[in-house]
Each structure stands twice: as C-alpha cells, then as structure tokens.
C-alpha cells in the first residue's frame, strides 16, 4: 500500500475558541467547539504526520497520537504558534481566534453601577497573517468563517494572510460551521477554487482536507 499522505511531515493544527478575560470571572469568547480542528489533527496523525494541536478551551479529548498544548487567550495562542513554527512543515489554522481583547483585565470582579457599561477593546495579533508574512517553506492553511459573500471574503483572507489554501465555511448555513458535527466547505488557492465539498461529517471533511494538503505539500516539494 502507498505511504500515508503526511508521513514524515510535522503538522501544527490550531483549534477551538480563545477566551479573553474581562475580570477574574468573565470573558469574551465565541461559539467554536474545537470539533473541526480536532478532527483535522486526528486525520493528520492517521495520515502519518507528527501532529501537535494548539487548543483553546474545549471539552474534547485529545485525539490518539496527537500532542496537545492548551492555551486560553489569542496572545497565548500567538506565542505558542510562534515558538513552534520553526519546527513545523504544515500549519492549519482552524481556531476561531478573538480579533479583539479588553484593553484592561480587572484584578477584582467588576461591580454593577450604571445602566450601561462600556468596555474598550484592542486588536489581538493576527497569527495567520504574522506567520504568512514570513513563512519561508511553511505550508499555511487558513480558515474563513463567513456569514455572507463567502468566496470574496475567503479569497481576500488568502491574499492578505499569504495562505497557500483557504478553507471557507458559511457559518449561517444549516449543517455548517460552529459546534455541529458536520461542515460544508469550499477550498481556494490563489488561482481559484480547488475543492467544493457537500455537507459531510467533520471527520470526513478533515480526511478530505488532509488528502488535499498532502498532495499540495508534496507536489510543491
Ligand atoms: O470549532 P468548531 O465548533 O468545530 O467550528 C469550526 C469553525 C467554524 C471554528 C472552523 O471551521 C473555522 O472556520 N475556523 C476559523 C474561524 C475564524 O476565526 O475565522 P476568521 O475568518 O475570523 O479568521 C481567518 C483565519 O485567520 C483563521 O484561520 C483564523 O484562525 C486566523 N486568525 C484570525 C484572527 C487572529 N487574530 N489570528 C488568526 O490566526
């Protein structure tokens, strides 16, 4: 039988949400469960890759054969990915990273006072963009979670973040996106559409993506 598609490669997958604390008991986050990224890590390991999963907070067990590093905030995910990128061949960014974090984290629980309250946020580092701006031989795959104009927004992200592939999911479509066990994805490279999949389990989507990524990675090397 042929060698597994990712044998001999080092794959880093990010998954799950990030949590940006406001005070000791509250945070800002999003609906990512981690299922898509965990399925990709599992499929990569099964395809023979030495696989590391950098995970935001989820309730999922670590897939067999995968080394997991837990992080909480976008800043922690950024630091961890930056440390590991030199020893990575393929980086797959399925995490839903917060774009903004509170400018200040209160040391004690915030108290109720007025009828309204204002929280000031500042941008978090864009991990994919930072890696993409200086990626060397790294093969970089990003996701785009969109609610409208999927192709346009996904292809803009591909270009802006210097991705090799972008995996787009319209998160308003039934059976796609956050938290469920299925997803509906389309993949683009700089030249155009590469793969369009129907609604499939996240495990099946992950296997198809891993096959495509393996072909592209080896085709290039
Ligand atoms: O976890 P599940 O419940 O299974 O849901 C799966 C998913 C919907 C979260 C997943 O399929 C998905 O689309 N993940 C990316 C979500 C997202 O944050 O997309 P984005 O369009 O905001 O970001 C684009 C890309 O840049 C992503 O690869 C993201 O990881 C990356 N990014 C974004 C912001 C940031 N500060 N740093 C980043 O690296």
UniProtKB/TrEMBL annotation:
Record's keyword terms, sorted: Decarboxylase, Flavoprotein, FMN, Ligase, Lyase, Magnesium, Metal-binding, Multifunctional enzyme
DNA/pantothenate metabolism flavoprotein C-terminal domain residues: 6-213
Pathway field: Cofactor biosynthesis; coenzyme A biosynthesis; CoA from (R)-pantothenate: step 3/5; Cofactor biosynthesis; coenzyme A biosynthesis; CoA from (R)-pantothenate: step 2/5
Molecular functions per Gene Ontology: FMN binding; metal ion binding; phosphopantothenate--cysteine ligase activity; phosphopantothenoylcysteine decarboxylase activity
Catalytic activity annotation: N-[(R)-4-phosphopantothenoyl]-L-cysteine + H(+) = (R)-4'-phosphopantetheine + CO2; (R)-4'-phosphopantothenate + L-cysteine + CTP = N-[(R)-4-phosphopantothenoyl]-L-cysteine + CMP + diphosphate + H(+)
Keyword match ATP-binding: no
EC number: 4.1.1.36, 6.3.2.5
Cofactor: FMN; Mg(2+)
Positions annotated to bind CTP: 99, 109, 143, 157, 161
GO annotation terms (biological process): coenzyme A biosynthetic process; pantothenate catabolic process
Region feature (Phosphopantothenate--cysteine ligase): 11-221
Cofactor: how bound: Binds 1 FMN per subunit.
Membership in a protein family: In the C-terminal section; belongs to the PPC synthetase family. In the N-terminal section; belongs to the HFCD (homo-oligomeric flavin containing Cys decarboxylase) superfamily.
Protein name: Coenzyme A biosynthesis bifunctional protein CoaBC
Species assigned in the record: Desmospora activa DSM 45169
Gene this chain is encoded by: coaBC
Portion of the full-length sequence here: 179 to 399 of 399
């Amino acid at each position: 039988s042929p060698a597994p598609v990712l044998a001999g490669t080092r794959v880093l997958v990010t998954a799950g949400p990030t949590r940006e604390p406001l005070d000791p008991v509250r945070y800002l986050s999003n609906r990512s469960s981690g299922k898509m990224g965990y399925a990709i890590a599992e499929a990569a390991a099964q395809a023979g890759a030495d696989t590391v999963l950098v995970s935001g907070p989820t309730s999922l067990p670590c897939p067999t054969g995968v080394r997991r590093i837990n992080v909480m905030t976008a800043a922690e995910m950024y630091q961890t990915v930056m440390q590991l990128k030199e020893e990575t061949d393929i980086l797959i960014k399925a995490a839903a990273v917060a774009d903004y974090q509170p400018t200040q984290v209160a040391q004690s629980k915030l108290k109720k006072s007025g009828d309204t309250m204002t929280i000031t946020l500042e941008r978090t580092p864009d991990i994919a963009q930072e890696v993409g701006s200086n990626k060397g031989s790294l093969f970089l795959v990003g996701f785009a979670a969109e609610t409208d104009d999927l192709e346009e927004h996904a292809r803009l992200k591909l270009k802006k973040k210097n991705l090799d592939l972008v995996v787009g999911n319209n998160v308003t479509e039934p059976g796609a996106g956050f938290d469920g066990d299925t997803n509906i994805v389309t993949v683009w490279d700089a030249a155009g559409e590469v793969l369009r999949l129907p609604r499939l389990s996240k495990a099946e989507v992950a296997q198809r993506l891993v096959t495509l990524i393996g072909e592209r990675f080896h085709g290039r090397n």
